[in-house]
Each structure stands twice: as structure tokens, then as C-alpha cells.
Amino acid sequence: MVAFFSQSKELVCRQREDPENPQMFKDGNIILGGIFSLHSSWKERQETYTNKPLPLECISLNFRDFQIAQAMIFTIEQINNSTELLPGISLGYKIYDNCGSIARSVRVALGLSNGNEVLSAESDTLCTRPAQVQAIMGDTSSSPCMAVATVIGPFNIPLISHFATCACLSDKTKYPSFLRTIPSDYYQSRALAQLVKYFGWTWVGAISSNDDYGNDGMATFTETAQQLGICLEYSVSLFRTDPPNKIEKIIKTIKYSTSKVIVAFLSVLDLDVLMYQLSQHNLTGYQWVGSEGWNFDSQIAERDQHHILDGALGLSIPKAHVSGMKEFIIDVKPVNLFDNDIIIEFWETLFSCKFNQSNSSAQNQKECSGHEDLSELQPSFIDMSLMPIFNNVYKGVYAVAHALHNILGCNKTCNYKVQLDPFMILQHIKNISFKTKEGDEVYFNENGDPPAKYEIINWQPGEDGIADFVSVGLYDASLPVDKQLSLQHRSLIWTHNSRQVPLSVCSEKCPPGTRKVLQKGKPVCCYDCIRCAEGEISNTTDSITCVKCPPEFWSNERRDACVKKEAEFLSYEEMMGALLTAASLFGTCMTAVVAFIFFRYRKTPIVRANNSELSFLLLFSLTLCFLCSLTFIGRPSEWSCMLRHTAFGITFVLCISCVLGKTMVVLMAFRASLPGSNVMKWFGPTQQRLSVLVFTLIQLLICILWLTISPPFPFKNFKVTKDKIILECALGSTLGFWAVLGYIGVLATFCFILAFLARKLPDNFNEAKFITFSMLIFCAVWITFIPAYVSSPGKFSVAVEIFAILASSFGLLICIFIPKCYIILLRPEENTKKNMMGKGATKTC
Fold it and tell me: Is 364 exposed, middle or buried (0-12, 13-18, 19+ CB in 10 A)?
């Protein structure tokens, strides 16, 4: 169109370019526009740039969009025949063919906006005139809709699409007048990701159409998949017009991949091209997961002769039924429609015939009668598998009609005086809410989108060899996340007619007891399973970390549970504990036997020779020494820990004190035999008893201070061994412990020195030599005890201490008392005062 001033100085527009005439047209009070791909492509031609380019010559009639256009016409006719909706108002339509070209879509959109039909040469048309249509239905794809919505957005003309799902179209700042009756791909992409996650597929391939629909949908899917822990082995895109080498590269990518699941966000036409190449390479056995762009298209199922898509799973628009629409669509007759080229072309393509055989180019084809039987056609045209899409067109037209009904204030009649404005219609469409005759609720959210609900479709083998679309679940985005997806798992059939869910992972799941370690340079879904270290567990599948067991627990053999550590202590039941107990009891019994012998022969010279009271007290203390070792055996408790060390310290001091007293008696007796010496009166029986009492009370005082300040206590040692708890007695105050041992050591050393000095004193039975030897054993045992005690782990340190107690006790008992018992029992003739005194005098002389 070109604008200029006429003689009346009014701005007049006249057409300069080629006109755009609608392929289907009907007049009415209010006109609705339609843009559909009635043809899927156009003839290629080389431009010479010397002449004006000719209009596009469209080829490849698209039955699918032809049916969609028929659905729009059916809906308009139904509204016109209604007495309840828009009474007295007739709707008309102008339906254009964009031939699958975005540029042509923009051109016909402008034609719908301002009129671009053939004008008479004499007519002068004002440039300032209202829009030719009040709303536009279409297009089927997202990219053309984006272009059209951008162009007509400033005019506020509503554009309602039935199949443009790109989430980008929800942006009202860019596309303010766009609405749709199909959910946004934002929800579909998330639903596909949840579907993949549901079956445990973490390693998948992705193929998308290289247009706004595929790229935007795949971007959302990739983002959601990443959040759900799904990895893409590859993500490729294609367009049906791509060169063969690019398609071949995609085929190689699929062929050499390890993933067995392919998520296909493709349009029907793009998938058709890909399927042909896949069949050429016999690439079957993959589990396809598809978007609604192709997942319920019967024509794709018919062309899948190599069963590439067997078992496919994906989303589709929920099934729908519109009364009378199927009959209207398939009741297309060319009779009396020879002025409508698209109907003629449709009929000729459908039945492979030609009208008007006078055309020389059509001599080899049969002639069309116009009365061919549609029932003889393949199901691709009459099975109405695209009824959900037709229903979306139906709802879109009814949305415009309801908006017009409200604007015109229709009741029994409509107000014809209301000046219609596209912006007003747009606002009313955004706010409408109604139910169709079939009960479908229609409304739009703030982004111009309907509620997101999908059926989950499974391609299952049909009796005629063509896949049946079986509904196996639902997806409802309005529900909570954990309830959005519902599936009838048992009714699914997978690729190769299998009932077993296919496996598609980069790495097998890591069982409990292991953790995942990522493989260098690979996605997070590729990992190795490393067994948890000792003391650590993982009790879930695919754990990324191993959890350390609490101190009192340890990992089991499988590393999937913490079990309570075995408590280790020296018990009576085990062999070592039983032997030490037996040795302790044997020593006690042996001491008792010696005590009995000494008591039986208490009046004999050998018993009376060196203070029999100290001998009996020494035997009593040795009995306590043997018995106190039993306090070290068994589970440590608060009382046993305090008792074992204090009892040991006090009884040994009592024992050493008695030995020291006996040694002092020998020395004092020798000193008393010297002329003029009265030393024995200072070390008589009373002084001996008092010395034993004082030495013992000092040790008792040390023990009381130890128990008062910081007493020993039961302690669980986790450091000695990893898989066991060592129950032991902590010393509390180490100073107290070493003070007790040190005091015993001082007394033992002092006793040893005195006994060593008295070993050669003249006497027939000098006890000092036996005491010297017993003290030598005592000191040797306890000197070696210290390093052995420190280096022994766990219960062995207790066993070392018991062994030291028993060894030193047996040393004292055997060295001091056994020689005397030997004389008493086996050499009674030597147990006489005369024998002892006589030999002693001889030696002295």
C-alpha cells in the first residue's frame, strides 16, 4: 500500500504490492482471521534480481492444518447457528495459508490487520480505518506466532494459538496480545524431566527442533533435568531443511552414544526427517520420550514402518470430544466449491485424482468425480487423533465469541451500536471464564496461558502393526510437586515390546556401604562406587558421602550400618581371665595351707625363731594380695576402679611392712648379741607392730587423698582399637597412682637393702637371705612391670598388672615360707632349738 493526498486532500491508500487473498473466506458482521500452514513448504527458485520476485508457490498440502482450519470453520458455524451466543450476529472468517514460512505469516498478518485483498482500480481507500479482523486464530508453530505477535502487538489484535507452546510467548512485555489454549512448554519441559526421573533414567540423549519451540523447550528441560540429577550425554538440534551432512552427524551421535533413552522435543515435520535417516541406519531399540509436538500424531505412527518409536512415552493434550466436529471435518465435498482452490487441491491430493482432465499434464491420472468415498481412506485422515488440537481451536473461537457477547451486551439481542475495538476485545478475552458444551473449563492466567494438564501416552503395538496411543497417566501442574505425576506403571510397554523398564544410566547405582566419586572430566552422573572406610557407613543408595559412626559404634562388614562396638575387658569367662583367677585362688589356697602349717606348728623353734606374729600378719597380707588381683578382673565399675588400686596399694604396703619388720628383727637380734647392747628393748614386739601400723597408715593416707581429690573411674577407651571399646579404669590423678607405687617401691628398696646387709649374719637359720632373694624378685617384677604396663594395649595392661601382683606375691610366699615348711614337714629333726643353736655356735667360734 502507498499513501498520497488526493484532490480532496484526504489521505488515501492504494495497493502497490501483490494482493493477499484468503484461501477460505466467509463474510459476516464480525470477521475472525486465521493463519495456518495449509501447505508445509514452497518451491525453491533462483532469483535473478532483474525482475520482481514472484509470490511463493506453495506445495505439499498439509492435511493436519487443513483439518485445523476446518475445525475453526465448524466452530464459527456452530456459534452462528446458536441462539444463546451472539444472537443476531454472524461471524465470518478469513483463513490464510502461510506455507510454513515465517515471512509469509507476517505478511498475511498485516493483510488481516489492514486489508490487502484485491482492490478495484477506481477505489480510493482511506488509510485511517479500523482493523479488518477482531481476532486472529493461529499459528500452529511457535516461531511464526512470535513473529506475528510482534507485528500485531502494537494494534492490540488478539492472537490465539492452539498449538504454539514456547514458554517465551508468556512474556507479555514482548507479546502483549498473545493468548493460547494449549499449556506453555515451561510445564511440559518440567513434566518430561519428572517423567525421566520417575523411571530412574539419569543418562539420556536430547534432540530438539532448531526453532523457538525446540530450543526454548529443551533449555527448560535441561535446567530442570540438572536440578533432578539427570545428565545429558548429548543435546543436538535439527531443522527439516538442514543439509544431509548435519543430519548424518546427528545419526552418528545417536549411534555411538551409550544412553538408551532419547528425549525428543521435536515438531512432526522435523521428526519425520529424522525418522527416515534412523530407518536407513536401522537404529531401533531406543526408548523415546516425546513432547506433545509429535507424541500423539497418527501420521507419524503410520510412517514408522521400522518400529523406531515402539514403546515411546510422552505427553499429549488431554483427549477431547466435540460433538459433530468429526462429521463436519470429514464431510468435505468439492461439489459447488470449484471456486475454492484449496478444497479442490485437498480432494485431488486425498484421492490421487484430477478434476478437469482436459489439462494435458493430468492425462495419466484418474479423473475426480467429487463423490469419492472417504471411508476408503487410510485412518490418517478420519481417525481424528488430532481432536485435542481441534478442541483447542474450538475453545479459542468460543473465547472470542464470549468476549464479544459480553462487550455487545447480548441477551436476546445484541447492541449493534457498540464500536468494537481490538484492545477492548483483548481485555475481555483475558478475563473470560466459561465452560464449553463438553464441560471443558476455559480461562487464561495473567500470562495468557490455560491450566497445564497433560495425558501421558504410551505407544503400544496395535493389531494392524501401527502403534496405538494408550493413556497411562496424567500430569497436572496445579497439584503439589509430589502429586503432579500419576502413572499406571503396570500397563506400560517399552521398546522391543518389553515389559521391563529399560535402563539408561552412565554408572550403576552405588549400593549402601559405598559412596560416589565423580569420574574426572565427565558429568556428575558418571561416577565410581568407592567402599566406605572402616568406621564409616552409607545406608542409602547413591550416597555421596560416608557418615562416621558415633564413638561407641563401628561399621559392619557391609558398611551399611553402625553396630555397637564390642566392649573389651578382662573377664572371668575368657581363657586369660580364668587362668589369672585360678592363679589367684591357688595362691590364696597355698597361703592358707602355709598359714595352717604355721599355726599347727606355731610352737616349734623355726616358727618362733623370728616373731611368729609378723609371720602370720605377713601370710594374712599375702592372702589379701592374692585376692585383690580379683578386683582387676570383670567389667570396671566405679567401686571396683577405686577398690582395685587402693586395695593393692594398702595390702602390698602391709606385706612389705611385715617383711621389713622381719628384716629389722634379724638385724636387731645380731646387734643385741653384741656385748653391752640393749637395742632389742627398742625394737621389741610392740615396736614391730607399731612400725607395721605406721607404714600402712601412711599408704592409707595417700589412698584417701587420692580418692578424695581425683579418684579412679571407669573409662571407655576408643583409641586403642578401632572396632572395640576398651573398658578400663582411668587413674584419675596419675600423681596419686604413682605416689602409691612409689611408696611401695621405697619400702621394697629399703627392705631389700637391709636384707642384703643381714644376709651373712651368723645364724643357723638366717631369714635375711630368703628375704633378700624375695625382695630381689619383687623389685625385678615391678621394675619390668612399668614398661610392660605402658606398652600393653587394652585388657593386656590389666593382665600385666595382675601378673605383677601374683608374681611378687608368689615370690614372697615361696622365698620366705616354703623353706620353713620344707623343714617343718620333711626335716622335722632340724626343727629343734638345740640343732639351730648348736650349729650356730660352731659357726660363731
Answer: exposed
Report whether CATH 3.40.50.2300 matches the domain 185-316+461-497: yes
Domain 13-43+53-182+323-332+386-443, CATH 3.40.50.2300 — does that match?
yes
d(CA 450, CA 180): 7
Provide the pLDDT confidence category of residue 760 given band limits of 50, 70 and 90: low
Query: What's the CATH architecture for 575-766+793-802?
Result: Up-down Bundle (1.20)
Sign of the CA dihedral 275, 281, 282, 287? negative
How far apart CA 98 and CA 321 sit, in angstroms, is 28
DSSP, residue by residue, 562-626: EEEPEEE---SSSHHHHHHHHHHHHHHHHHHHHHHHHHHTTTSHHHHTT-HHHHHHHHHHHHHHH
Query: How many whole angstroms separate alpha carbon 676 and alpha carbon 203?
Result: 110
In the predicted structure, residue 18 carries a pLDDT above the cut 70: no
pLDDT one-digit tens code per residue, 761-774: 555 445 667 777 77
250-266 pLDDT tens trace: 999 999 999 999 999 99
**Nine-digit cell string for 251:** 545419526
**For residue 842, what pLDDT band results from cuts at 50, 70 and 90?**
very low
Question: Phi and psi for 210 in degrees, rounded to 5?
Answer: -85, 65
Amino acid at 297: D
Contact of 332 with 343, CB cutoff 8 Å: yes
Paired sense of beta strands 485-487 and 353-354, if any: unpaired
DSSP codes of every residue in 47-100 = --SSSPPPPP-EEEE-HHHHHHHHHHHHHHHHHHT-SSSSTT--EEEEEEE-TT
